[in-house]
Write a structure and sequence with these properties.
alpha+beta
């Protein structure tokens, strides 16, 4: 799979059964819909269905192609103030986080007292927050 930002091939990062597509060049992360289910079980963000139905944001930024269907993705806001703008496949194939965005979302949205032993939180924290 190629990165929607720099078009370099992404690598698959796997830890304890969780796989993410990661661009080593721009540090972006692709979550397909199955991987998103794991993320939303661990982080109190919104339900996945709500997020996929969120209205698109009008942003003056070039729209990126989905790495799966290659159609232009739209932009949605996640997190608390300040909102973080991420890219969403209009075919619901998944979400793209530019380098640093996933760490910001996790920092804002981890529930108080979240168990760091949770495999998803632990993996994402180790890779994208530290």
């Amino acid at each position: 799979m190629d990165c929607p930002v720099c078009n370099d091939p992404m690598i698959v990062v796997e830890h304890k059964g969780i796989e993410l597509d990661f661009c080593n060049e721009c540090r972006g992360v692709w979550f397909d819909s199955g991987e998103l289910e794991l993320l939303f079980e661990a982080i109190d963000l919104k339900t996945l269905d709500d997020l996929m139905k969120s209205p698109a944001k009008e942003i003056r930024e070039q729209l990126k192609p989905c790495p799966i269907c290659r159609r232009k993705m739209d932009k949605i806001a996640v997190g608390k103030t300040p909102e973080i703008i991420i890219d969403r496949c209009i075919n619901k194939d998944g979400l793209w986080f530019d380098g640093g965005e996933l760490g910001k979302v996790m920092t804002q949205c981890l529930p108080e007292g979240c168990a760091k032993s949770d495999r998803v939180v632990s993996f994402l924290g180790d890779v994208f927050i530290k």
